[in-house]
Amino acid sequence: MAVLDLQHIRKSFGSFTAVDDVTFEVNKGEIVALLGPSGCGKTTTLRMIAGFERPDSGRIFIGGADMELRPPYERNVGLVFQDYALFPHMTVAENIAFGMKNRGTPKNEIAPRTLEVLQQVQLPGVENRRPHALSGGQQQRVALARALVTRPDIMLLDEPLSNLDAKLRLQLRREIRTILASFECTSIIVTHDQEEAMGLADRIVLMNRGRIEQIDTPARLYQSPKTLFAADFIGHANWIHGTLSKAAGDAGIVATPVGDVRVTMRQGSPEQGPVTLCIRPERLAITDGTVEPATRMQAIAESVDIVGADVRLWSRLKDGTLVQSLDKNIGRAMPQPGSEVMLGFGPDDCVVLPASDAA
Amino acid sequence: MTKRLADALFGSVYYLFLASFIGFSAIPVVVAIVLSFDARSFIGPFPPTAFSLQWYEKFLADDYYYQGLATSLLVSAIATVASTVLGALAALGLDRAGFRGRKVLQAILLSPLVVPNVVLGFGILMFASRLGIIDGMPRLIMGHVLITFPYVMRTTAASLVGIRSSYYEAALSLGARPWKALLQITLPLARTGIVAGAIFAFVTSFDDVGISLFLSDAFTFTLPVAILAQMRANLDLTIAALSVIFILATILIIVLLDRLAGLDAAVGRGVYGR
């Protein structure tokens, strides 16, 4: 059953269309990420769900109830702000009790529930501290606790990890997932960070310029992006432009400046005409001659980046396109800059996308 | 070489100017303090020849000043409370308002700061008499609210700027109705601005002569008006003694204000995360 249902939501500010015909559902217990670059409308969408903005048209249902005329304080929505917005003049316990008091929790339940929720977010013993006496990660968890303790129908998290440093982010990502799962809480996470979206969400709503580009699971969004924007925004990609023609069965041939490429046709991908091939760097391998990939491309190695666990090789194809291939950093010798390399990939390693000037 | 000389010249002129300005503002205070201890019974040439506490005794024995002091304290206290409530609410309203003409309304509400007190005093006197208010006390309170209100509005508005809107929104999302969110979240966070405004309001009201002169009557007059009247009637050094008390009171309030503002600067970073 859908806890949240957005139907054809539209919102403009002056002449700027922030959100344009957005429709999606969130099911009970599901974590959905609203992902996109800044200005794509994800925050405006979140603010409309919370009730801080009113859509120009379209309808929002939470738990089956139309939210049209409901102000924020009459919606049962838990919100975690990007800056946490913990009330600085109140203790942690007072912060957590604030929502319960306003939502009419019986007085004798407030203190035990405050302690209980602090246990659940693994922060016991901080109830009498002020928010500014806590670290960023701790403040984040208090903000989560404050929103969760009122048992909202849906949790909204606005860029929950953007104020933390990289290592803490990874750790807190796992913790947030565990906490949200333990409350069986339906959640929406707004983020511009694709890693955060992939790591936290069951499904991703990818937005661009106020519109939804694609709604899919993280794995499918990465493996089968439906648009150039989706392929470009999630992870890295190499682009090769060409013209597709159909061959036998589900095979196709794309004529490109660097030679013909054999591809596998998938459902929903174009049948023929101008296309763009998207090849993920980890799928574009240096061939050593022992295996014979379906497509081979000659290139000149330009530079090698060691990025921790991975090695990224930049090389230039014959037509001047710069491509990257990603390999595990396991001590294999990498080509010298200036030397010739042979790159290869199979028909299933590339995604065929309709050519457009979007990416 | 000439450039360096010019720099040095500029530097000395600057310090000379600074020193003479400090002297200019400090000398009257020093003269008043010294003269208040003068043992002579008349106003003689400056350095007094002997010292005594006679003017302080005379001041403490005079009912006229007491009456003025009582009125001043009452008027200032009521005006401060009223201005603080009204000024804080006005600042909140203007901060949240998105309507057109917000700037104009703000300018009108702040205008008592720039309109001469004499004009305001005369205006209120006329206005009050049209309303049939002929008693000194309500007139004085009206006038003092008018001149102190902009200070509270200003300082509250300044502290509201530093409060992120997410606090208010967080309160709403936690089920608080707007008035409750303002009362329990926004106002406590703006408290330093409001308190600073209240202190400014009290000092301004307590020191005011211009507007009080118009609005006092024979039985209700503020301390500064009493001083002025006494000075015209029989000029003696009780005024000097009174000035010293005034100076001490003002210093006390400034120290209080500084402690408050200093506290804000030290704690503010942590509290408001600016």
Which terms would index this structure?
heterodimer; A: 359 residues; alpha+beta; Rossmann fold; OB fold (Dihydrolipoamide Acetyltransferase, E2P); 2 domains; five-stranded antiparallel sheet; 8 helices; B: 274 residues; mainly alpha; MetI-like fold; 0% strand; globular; disordered C terminus
Question: Would you kindly provide a written description of the structure presented here, covering whatever features stand out?
Answer:
- The complex is a heterodimer of chains A (359) and B (274).
- In chain A, a hairpin with a 2-residue loop joins β1 and β2.
- In chain A, α2 crosses α3 (107-120) and α2 (92-102) runs parallel beside α4.
- By secondary structure, chain A is α+β, with helices and mostly antiparallel strands.
- Chain A has helices at 42-50, 92-102, 107-120, 136-148, 166-182, 194-200, 218-223, 228-233, and strands at residues 2-13, 16-27, 31-35, 57-62, 65-66, 77-80, 154-158, 186-191, 203-208, 211-216, 238-246, 251-256, 259-264, 273-279, 285-286, 295-307, 310-317, 322-328, 340-345, 350-354.
- The radius of gyration of chain A is 24 Å and the shape is elongated.
- Chain A folds into 2 domains: 2-230, P-loop containing nucleotide triphosphate hydrolases (Rossmann fold), CATH 3.40.50.300; 236-354, Beta Barrel (OB fold (Dihydrolipoamide Acetyltransferase, E2P)), CATH 2.40.50.140.
- In chain A, the strands form 4 sheets. In chain A, strands 6-7-8-3-9-10 form a 6-stranded mixed sheet, with helices on both faces. Chain A has a 5-stranded antiparallel sheet with strand order 13-12-11-14-20, with no helix packed on it. Chain A has a 5-stranded antiparallel sheet with strand order 15-19-16-17-18, with no helix packed on it.
- In chain A, 23% of the residues lie in helices and 37% in strands.
- Chain A is built from 8 helices and 20 strands.
- Chain A starts with a strand and ends in a 5-residue tail after the last strand.
- Chain B is mostly helical and 274 residues long.
- Chain B has a single domain, classed as MetI-like fold (Orthogonal Bundle), CATH 1.10.3720.10.
- Chain B is 79% helix and 0% strand.
- Chain B contains 12 helices and no strands.
- In chain B, α2 (54-61) packs across α12.
- Chain B is globular, with a radius of gyration of 24 Å.
- Residues 265-274 of chain B have low confidence and may be disordered.
- The chains are: A alpha+beta (359), B mainly alpha (274).
- Chains A and B meet through β6 and α2 of A and α7, α8 and α12 of B.
- Chain A: This is ABC transporter ATP-binding protein.
- Chain A: Belongs to the ABC transporter superfamily.
- Chain A: GO terms for molecular function: ATP binding.
